[in-house]
User: Fold these one by one.
Assistant:
Number 1:
Amino acid sequence: MSNLAPDSPRRRLISDSLVQLSSVRFKEFIREPEALFWTFAFPILLAIGLGIAFRNRPAEIVHIAVVGSSPEASRVAAAARADSGLAVEVLSPDSASAAIRTGRVALLVVPQPDGRVQYQFDETRPDARNARLLADNAIQRGYGRADQVRVSEAHVRERGSRYIDFVIPGLLGMNIMGSSIWGLGYTIVDARRKKLLKRLVATPMSRAEFLVSYLVSRIALLVGEVVVLLGFAALFFGVPVRGSVLQLTLIILASVFAFGGLGLLIASRARTIEGASGLMNVAMMPMWVLSGVFFSSENFPKAFQPLIQALPLTATNNALRASMLRGAGWTVVGPEVALLALWAVATLWLALKWFRWR
Amino acid sequence: MSGALAVSVRALRKRYDDVVAVDGLDLEIPTGECFGLLGPNGAGKTTTVEICEGLTAPDEGDVIVLGRRWATDERALRERLGIQLQETQLAEKLTVAETVRLFRSFYARGRSIDDVIRLVQLDEKRDGRVGKLSGGQKQRLALACAIVGDPELLFLDEPTTGLDPQSRRQIWDLVEEFKAMGRTLLLTTHYMDEAERLCDRVAIIDHGKVIALGTPRDLIASLGAEHVVEFVLAGSSDSLSDDSLRRLEGVRAARRIDGNAWELRVSELHRTVPALLAELAQRRLQLAELRTHSATLEDVFVHLTGRQLRDE
């Protein structure tokens, strides 16, 4: 029962029904205040929060404790205080063990009766290892160790290598994923549940135009989302966009089609919002964690990397970061965009094959 | 043209899992007729209509609509049909005009959006959100979407179910106007007054089969009685029998509904009622209730199936 008969009486480049379907989709979205909030305000609030949390702070103060009340303990504490990066307390053994258990101090310095100094710390914690290095250095100097090489420091804070630079492309990728999958999945399942899909296929409406209208309205909305988020990031955090606008546009389009296809696939058969929500979360949750939104996906074991790198959100984030932060060429960005295109073709094909119109 | 049938259905069967929804059903609807499918909920009306609308595939049987078949001419057929489904919820965030304009855009030719909105008397709500409309207004909007393509054949599935009397009459007026244009209509309903008022012919459907077919007038006449008398006795009625009631003047049929309630089908009300009162007085029986009404399609259904049509 194909609705795509070639003898369609309307032969315009863009048919009126596609225009109507897309504009209706667009209007329905912008008349939903909550959806507007989640799409536009939420990523900005998240970016502000993360930007404040990870802004360029002065080097962190490390808390340590010297244990005991002996003269030796006072001398060790005085030596450690010489490093301005250390906050040193002198504590009794009881309060010292409580302090390290709760993480209030990262390191205990315990002078031993035989004159040695023992460091007690959790060697799996980077800040504790750092505290040990700083404390040891300060104490050794206080006891007269001399530096053999003269050193100086120059601090580097380059735009494009800060955490906020890392996280903004990740937020953009996450937003494209969320709004595409939700935007398509939710509205289609809702229309099916309300028998609106059935009513529409009872008209001569082209089914292909119906599905395309979702992508058209999504892309129209995305222009706003991208401009707002990247504009905000550039204005307040100076996050760079080093690649060409064309490259960025193509990455985002490929991503919209990939996630739009995934959204359609998820919505292709579900009859209830609850069922579709579950599927959407199953699809999105692994990508939130694995695809390098807030921290690099390289942190996961090597064995998982082929799988992680094949996820559409990983491809989106990699391509966005390469383009925005490094101004990378098509040799780097191209394969990621190709992977997204593959996702788009596969999911759209399956979605059309399985789509339940009533 | 002898083939001027708008809808022709032969030996239609449709089964859902273990329920037979349509069980060998035949229909012929000439062009220009308003045809009603009347039956209780679950009789197979909606399945039958949705098969005619090309929304459900039959298991067996032959369906020809406007001289074409769904398998080969779906797109062309859709251009010529108007469809109103049971319980469609149109997008709540759109306005009335936006909704009608959207549906208009699907059809190659059709009526103007303003005309249709005026016809269904929603001018004042033109720019109002669909979500704010009353039930009757929503139903009129659904009707507007069904006729905006200027259809030759209009399908209405339970167009007035759940509406208040005034809204029902507004829908009826719209249907009358559509009929007056010489177009064909197939509507389903479980309201016999609706079928009697709107339909040229009705098919009474039960358990997926046509159990009676004809004009409302002929079907009612087939009862052989134009009036129905119902009465309820106060106290015991054991001394009263069906036979004694049947012997009363003008009574064609009598049956006990339950307990102390009886029903008579009557040809001459003005002779039967005095005779009934005399009979009861003679037997020293007291009336608790006495009602009469003109025979309706409801009575035809009860006569044919022994069950009530309405689910209320």
Number 2:
Amino acid sequence: MAFWFYRGLRRGIATTRYPRSVDRWARDLPSPPVFHSTRLTIGLVDRLVAACPAKALSREQHELVADLGRCTGCGRCADLAYGAVRPSGEFQLAATDRAALIKRVPIRGQEEAGIGDR
Amino acid sequence: MAIDERRPGSELDHLSTELRRRVAKSFGRSLHIRTVDTGSCAVCESEIRLLTAPHYDLHRLGFFFTPAPRHADLLLVTGPAVRAADNLLLKAFDATPDPKVVIAVGACALGGVYTEDELVHGSIDRVLPVDVFVPGCPPSPLALLQGLLVAVGRLEERVSALSLDLDFRAAGEA
Amino acid sequence: MTHAIAGLAIAAAGSWLAAAAAGVGATRRAGLATCTVISGLGGAAATTCGVLLAVHGAGPTLRLGAGPVGGATFHIAPLAAPFIALLGLVAVAIALYCPRYHDPAPGTAAYLLVYNLALLASLAVLIAGNVVAFLVAWETMALLCYLMILRHHRRTGVAEGAFLFIALSEVGFVMIVLAFAILATHTGSLDLVTIAARARHVHAGWRAAAYVLALCGFGFKAGLVPFHIWLPAAHPVAPADGSAFLSGLVIKLGVYGIALFGFTLLPGGPAWWGLVTMGFGAISAVLGILYALIERDLKRFLAYSSIENIGIIVTALGAGMTFTAYGQHAIGAFLLIVALYHTVNHGTYKTLLFLEAGVIEHASGTRDLDRLGGLIRRLPRTAVICLIGTVAIAALPPLNGFVSEWMLFQGLFQGFRISSHLVGILIVIAGALIALTGGLAINAFARAYGIPFLGMARSGQAANAREAQQPLAGPALLAGACVFLGIGAPLVLTALDRVARATAGIDIRSELIVPKLTVIPAHTDFSGFSPTYLAACLLAMTVVPILIFLAGRPRARSRRPPVWDGGILDFRARMQYTATTHANPVRVTFEPLYRPSVHVERASDDPAGRSGPVHYRFQVTPIFERYLYRPVIRLVQTLANLARPIQSGDVNLYLFYVFVVVVIAYAVYAL
């Protein structure tokens, strides 16, 4: 019998079960960031805004505005401030309304040297 | 309904959304998809192509790709709506029979990469009325699947309830 | 009845003589009109004569005095009936066509004079009753056709085409003279009826020689391969109605000659005669259509298609002779009927197509298929008429081409009834070749109709074609004739059966048409179909979709966006198929036959897309000219060169010749 057929029978069905259940490895796909708002400071946020190559991040007063539509999942913001920013692992981002993709995170962190910085 | 009436933000928009959603639900288990490329880098197309591969298997959901817009229920549009592709995009939209659904795929199509200038519109929803936006660069096939299922109402969209603030999740802030 | 037939024949001949005289006055519009009216009346007389002759089954004989070689006898035999009817129909159609096609001019006057005399000469060939009358009429007809081709003698290709026509016609004529000479000498009479009666006493070898010479000689006129090279050279360069006359009638005279020898003068020949004839026919059919498929010039294409159809007719004749030789007289007579029926059919639709080619050329200024397009909108009525002719020649039901080709296949497929297996297989192989021809013919005519008429115009000339002032009545008459010959096939076949009965002595009326207007191929247990009922069924079937549409139309109004074209900006004429590309699959498949020389040149060495224009030249190797005719011509020239020293130009040498001859004469006389 063909080797692939035998191997397939041994390994079982290879198709994903989505939407019934989400594959565990989907967490590791490139994904938009999530933030620890208490660790964000104005200075840090300004550095994050400058670092985002897709211009997905911007700052409005004391809020970080993240446009998920522009985010490419490159991870530079998480690299820059790994304590404050982490990849979300979230891929189910479809939106019926463009405005739903624009998220606001309040900047609650105090301006202190050394915390939240690389 | 004329295209400008269905632009996001217009008066009739909130009325038509519910109607469109109900109509889109009727596609539930049998949907024909036509992809339109308005100047993308073709990576989104690679991910779209993977949907028919055995691992993601679009066909088990009852969704199929079709080359002719005449047979399509849904247009999967990639690319930043380059002005040179206006003719193509509008002709394809026109040729697709109603009721139809438009999904904009990728950061380019959502306005994230190119700003509007004399070569490019910047985002698809400046040209066509878009029903579902799928972000990503490129969106993985799983994200595309979720986008398709949201478009036909088999899944609820989750991103509205998503909060990017890890420290105050429980408060339910957007 | 016989008197009526004779009277009509004389009336036709007289009208054409009068029309020739009136043609001299065709330098004015009134003179042109008079000439064509009289010519048309003559045609009507001829058609009636032919039909009556076919129905009646026997014709009169007229003797016109005794001259140095026995005078001229005219015997209107039943075998000539379909040809006379065809001659008349073609004459009427061309008469209706002429006034709008030709402009009054001295050239036109000369042309019409010659054309009407050619009609007269063709009639004379068909009703000739003795050898002398036949040969004189034949040669006259050939010369007059040569003059007809030279109408526009200053244009390129005309002189060459006319020369090929007359040269090969003369070679054929020599063979015909020899054939008749053999028969006349061995039967001791110049009268065709007497020859037919006495021919069976002639030695088999001489009969075979006479038949082979006749087959080759008349093959030159009919356009059988390999005697065909004059056809694609001569037919396109004649004026449109001249080409129609040549293709519609003159090549049928070659067929008439073969039928005359095969069925009247030398009936009951051995089977190999029929097999050789069938072989020529099948090869002509396949090669004709293969060369037709790659032609860009519309009239050259039609000329090659004529070769193909002549091949089909001659295949039917040959197969008929073979079946008769093996005792299957019914099928033999059936195939003779098929040959005559296809002759009439092809004469009708080929004339129609050549006249329409003339209209297209007149309206758009070009014959090149790659420069035409979209004519269905510019010339709507011409398009409809041409469609009928194309459907007929492509042998699609329910028109006449389909009926005659169906009958031919049914006749050929009965090869299993022959006792010799080899011959049976050869007949089936011929059937297979004709089937190949049929398939290629559909391809060829889809191209020949689709490229000029459908799509977008490929040049400014085609875009500006106008239908006003184009001749319509003549082609429309022929289109109606095609429809009648197809749907009314049982009627036509009954008449042809009388002809076959008079010629071959067999009446297969009961095995040809059975009740309910069904045609059967000479045996009740083989197959059958009714062209009349088929046509009625097809009409009825169009009603059903209309009813379904009316009942099932969606009630809501639907949106009508433009046709999905892939999103292109603009349709350009250059995006379409051209005639050259349409024929590409055939060109590639049959490359060993075409042996093309292909040249591709780029304007510069830049990569494709930016290199500027690319020139692609595809030229078919003319294998017959190169490998058959050129060696023969070179041989003749070599022999002539060898004989040249005799004519040195030296008077003393000539006086020496005289002296030698005188000495020899004295010596012979003394002894």
Number 3:
Amino acid sequence: MQFVSGRPVALVTEASNPIASAAALRLARSGARVMACDVDGEGLEAALDAGAADQHITTFAADLTVGGEADRLINFAIEKFGHIDVLVTGPALPPNISWPNGQKDQLLSVATHALRGWINGVQAAIAPLERSGGRIISIVTSAGRYRTGYFRPETMNLSSAPEALANGAILSLIRQLALELAPRRIRLNAVVVGLMEGSGEFAQMSERERRFALEEISLGRLGTPEEVAGAIAFLASNASNYVTGTAIDVNGGWWMS
Amino acid sequence: MTDNQPQPRLADRVAIVTGGANGIGRAIASLFVREGARVAVVDIDERGLHSLTEAEPGGQVLAMAADATLATSAETTVQTVATEWGGLDILVNNVGGRIGGGGLDATESDWQATIALSLTSHFLWCRASAPAMISRGRGRIINIASNAGRYRSNTGSSGLSYSTAKGGVLQLTRTVAHELGRFGITVNAIAPGSVLTEAGVQEERELERDVYDRVMRETALGYFAPPEEIASIALFLASDDSSYVTGTTILASGGWCAS
């Protein structure tokens, strides 16, 4: 398995997220020069520290939802490395909201805010990725393809509709942009992640619900961020040359498309 | 991936590839050998098997001249591999194809022959292989399906029986994945679009120029896949990198259609 270029440059956004940081570490271990970006610079250092001791990962604090920040990130990467081959976008995780009660337009504004970072990052990366024949790989939550949660909620206190909206939009954009950016030699794909070790969702379940969830998952266990990173490494490499516009479920055989 | 001295990714693994003398199966067998696996290749094409063993002289290929649609072939091969190499880690259900043609005008015998070749064979090899994998608590099954089984044939020429069989392969993939998941076995499918195997090239030559142009225009990446670009996906599914991926179908159609 080979990367697009011998010593590729990979940018990872939302890199404080455990899956995104696992992806950054995995790509670095496989020989990529990695730049990890997050709005939370300190959280980023902490997320990468555990495994980063012998890896070369450059960190960069930026809020991609703010105009001009994505360009600042890309310019910094180009100055430092000369080119960009891979963009890994971390998951869009807008907060749950009170819906349909609560503030009018909150669903749209919350989802849009989360989506803005993805759009800004991708837009800024297109020119350098075109030059390298690069890849965009997005980490997407199950809400984007299926739904959140394993069970019917007992009460409807808070809604994950913003997460569904933002992540569903990202999957739609990946399909569309895979077509539109193919002439510019850019491939886009997603990994759709299931229930991960250390996830808040699992922690909040009752014993009985946990047992049910594990019965639903074909492999009978939770996944690890490193396992998702394995699929991301595949999509970042030449091994996935003929794959674009797709979403690969990395969920141990929960929902299957 | 780009380490100075890349580690073979399937070192000491034992694999079976059905229909592996030619085309996608052959590309998979060769890649697996290059990555350190020992591969039993099952095919009725003895000349193809011979040329494969000539091309892979390192003793890592075991050529099995047999009809992959027969249950006895599956049982004998799994038994042989277990005796010779001590177990089975990876099954690639690659055998498949269309017999006869047409849609609703197909003969019943052509229909049944296509289903036997492209769908029932997958069931028989899964059934024969599962015990060897269960006993080790690990295993990988990779089914070669088609975009014709997920959406429809991109050229329109693949036919009803073939598309139906391939659709069945995708459902078999999900259901067997759920059945075998608790034993540490993953089951996934690859759904290729147009692939430049000898048979694929022949099929494309027979297309009207207009149809060829249309399919090419519909394919986002603007080219048909060399078999190696399908084999590299099979390697991912056989490797440790896909340990939490099961029941899925990886679409490999160059962006022809995706969902």
Number 4:
Amino acid sequence: MTWWDALVRAGAVPAAYVPPASLGRTDADDGAEPGADLVEGETVQVHPVTPDESSPQPACFLDGIEQWKVVGYDGVLPIVRAYVAAAVRRRGNDRRLRTAFEGARDFAIAPLAAMAPERRRALTEHCPDVVDLSLEEATQPGRMLELARRAVDSARQAMERDLAERCLARLGEAEWLVVDGLLSVSGKLAGHPRAVGVIKSHGAQFFSGLDLTRALTVPAAHRTSVFRARGGHARNEVYSWYLRLWPWEGNDLLYGLLRIEARAAAATVAAASATSGWLLAERAPLATPDVRWDRLLYPMHDVETYLRTRAPRDLLSSRTSRLPRTGT
Amino acid sequence: MIARPDPPPIAIGRVVATELKPSTPHQFHFWTANETTIGIGAIVKVAEGERVVFGVVTDGFAYSDLATPLHDVIGAEGDPARAAAAPTVRQEIRYWTAAVLRQIPEEPLQPVPLGQVFVANDTDVAQALRMDAYLHSAAPTAIPIGLYSSGGLEAPVYLDADFLLGPEAAHLNISGVSGLATKTSAVEFLLASVFRHFPPHKGKVAAVCFNVKGPDLCFLDQPGDLSDEDRRRYELLDVPAKPFERVLYYAPLKADGVNLNTLRTHPDLVDNVTPLTWGLQEVVDFAEVLLNRDDIDAKADAFIDFLRDRVLGRSFDDGFGNAHNVTTFTDLERLFRGIFDGLETSGRSDSWRTHHIATMRKVRNRLLNISTRCKGLVTDDGPPSDLPWGAFEDRAVYVIDVANVDPLGQDLVFARSVSKLREYLERRDLGVDAVVVFVDELNKYAPGDGPETYVKKMLLDISERGRYLGLVLFSAEQFRSQVHRRVVGNAGTQVFGRMDMDELATPGYQVLSPATKIKLATLPVGELMVRHPHFTQPIFVRFPKPPVLRGRDGMERFPAAIDLPFDDAVARQLLQLDRRIRPNQVKDLIADRTEEDVRRALAAVRQKRPEDVLAFFRKALGGRVAPDAPRERRAVPPLNPISDEPY
């Protein structure tokens, strides 16, 4: 018997609600007051990048996924089942990706203190991994879902950070680790000379005025000047720059636009064009059919595909209409 | 079966099923690593709980996660060279389709479970092909046909003698493009295998092979060059890697009546070539073979029957005061001349004993023409020289070389040999219990269309009734689709070498998957696809090079002797019978003698095989008689205009 079955037996109302935000991770740099200090030139400049097809071999790619859904209600309190997973896939000299590290966690998120005793007991007895949500009184169910999302995000980031640090400990001398997302969330990552973060979403804007215009209209196969990122999620100092993979004209301003994070060091500035060169070469093969293919590097797509194939089949399988059944 | 420990099972794949491509009781799909040892034709095993399913791979697919080819173009910016240089290789799949060979337990028959896939080992192959029933029974009937090989594993594949040589089913048909020596080699190997493994409880077996082209079967008693790999395969299959021990060659004579009409005339080999010569008695029963449908109407047929029943081999009065004992074509000519002269001189009507003179003339011309058209095979020179009917030896191969005989003579040889085989096997006094008859070029001798020839009838007869008698047809052709359906349809075992793509496009091959067809079209020499009643799907096997000298190699090592002058040829033939004879003695004996007399004496010696060959030959020649001056013959005008025919 699953823990959610036990919960329903204990009187919870069964549910099967997949909130829109649960289908994937969010990379929105929604921290407060982002800013930038240029470390390459006085103003944001645009530098051409030549694709360098001699990408580092071997190289490791880290990505993670998260999935969650409401499986029951104790009164109006949503009980969430969540699954997070992350993996490092290593690309060897044969250019094929193989899993080097991986982790997964299937757990429940519930406001234990607010639950009826019998439901709480049923949950804690049958589910070995419960994340407790601390709620103030009269918290609305919608707000609880947002808290659940943050808990899932947090669990995924922790797992990614853990894998990244394990991977760095075993990284070869010429080997690179490419992380899907922020490098600055980990001190070890942020300080490693052969770790780069690739950020696809651009919720945080580090520039304004003409610098912003130059940064966001950088042409295809060009990069911006390197800057020190401030604010946002950045808890550790990193250098960053924008890199455009595909022409945005005729599409969208952010089409094909990546933000790269690397160690805050002079060597990073010196190597920015070279690093951009091999990242630009990672455009091929295309990461289709993912809709984010213009910004999603194929190895990251591969890691995500790998993780999704290993995710529980029953978590997000209900994609049918939620209209009541007619009975015939 | 050769006892070898089975290696531990190796999981090489996993069964996958989707709604669009589900597992069924007869088919399943599985994936493997990109680098895998299996391929089309590999036998695999699915094990899930108590259920074990054996399958043979019939199709394979490879694809990547590329959504559309255009995405590859975009990713490489239109430059194919850059596509190859992409830093990451796309995820790929090797996806295979397999046809179920056998399920254990067989009932209830269920879809193939979604379990792990293993490479089949020796034991698995035996079970998958249901060979265990005849390999391990109290009276095993297994006959190796080759080695199934896949992924470094090699397992002998056996045919069931009850289904290859009768009585359950019988006959083997082999198709394949010409020029690769696969068909002939396969039959040679299989004959060696049959001779080694023919079950003792089934008695004795022999083979009659018709050599219809070149020197193909002319060196079955000579060792060929075998590689170590071939010898290893022979060892695995438990078949001796040596040529046939008892091979007897039969070939008609050439038109001169003394030189053999075969390519096996090298002095070192010609000893065991026996002339194949038939006289009137041997031929008349098969007159239908030599006379076409226009010749044989009811009247002619009735007259031939009359000759056969009332005249041949017995004393006969022609009604004009002449007594005849017709045993040769010369006697027959004398009989006809007597009848025609009698009718003319007596002024009687144009019929004799109810037979119209026109019919008689027609039959006379056709029959007497046989010895002209088949000169060397059909002779008027003494006793016949024939196969040892009633004294066939166990494990002996009788090769009848008709490669250089004209088509009419080939038809006669086929028809008479097969008829005699059937006749003796029906009486159970051939000397052996089963005979394998090997006929190549079925496209010529049993075409699907074309006239109903006597040879085609004979082949049909063997195909349909032979298995009850122990008369088994091993046949070969290039284009199976163009052979008579009942001949190939009755073959219980069907073997395919490399096939022509046009042939594979014909309806008879629709049951094969495209991948199997491609494999067939590119099959290397020494590999075959086998269908057998016990195998629910075709199986690919390798067989070793036959242990005999190939025709072309044989011709280089043992080139055919040049035709000798008449006296030298006669001397050589006598010398073969008795090494003490000196050629000059023979030449002196036959000087001034007619060739007919010499041939007749020679035939008598061949038949008798006396202790003192020269003395017998001298006696058979008889005393010298001064030739009579030729008598003048008066031309006699015909009684009536009888026919428009130009004779």
